[in-house]
Write a structure and sequence with these properties.
By secondary structure, the protein is of the alpha+beta class. Helices cover 38% and strands 10% of the residues. The chain has five helices and four strands; from the N terminus they run E-E-H-E-H-H-E-H-H. The strands form two sheets. The chain has a two-stranded antiparallel ribbon. Strands 3-4 form a two-stranded antiparallel sheet. Strand 1 and strand 2 (12-13) form a beta hairpin. The protein is globular.
Length: 99
């Protein structure tokens, strides 16, 4: 089973609920690349589609370089602190621990 999102370098999975609440993936150019691979579902596509799309972005050179290797970004800050704390409290705790 695929699980496409996690915290780089920590080996910790990040719930797909983040995307369900309005989070979205970005490549190094700031592009919401899931629109290219799943034009209707976009970031709400199935985990297998998201994982395959992420690997394609990285293999084609659109990944973000970082101390733990090439990765992609999951954008959540636009949701606001109140939404994050009420709907994704576990993610907030992970962020405080690993950020």
């Amino acid at each position: 089973q695929f699980h496409p999102t996690g915290i780089a370098g920590a080996g910790t999975l990040v719930t797909e609920g983040c995307r369900g609440e309005g989070g979205y993936l970005l490549n190094k150019d700031g592009e919401r690349f899931m629109e290219r691979y799943a034009p209707n579902a976009k970031d709400l596509a199935g985990r297998d589609v998201v994982a395959r799309s992420m690997m394609t972005e990285i293999r084609e050179g659109r990944g973000c370089d970082g101390p733990w290797g090439v990765h992609l970004k999951l954008k959540l800050d636009h949701l606001g602190e109140e939404v994050l704390e009420s709907r994704l409290p576990g993610i907030c705790e992970l962020s405080r621990t690993f950020a």
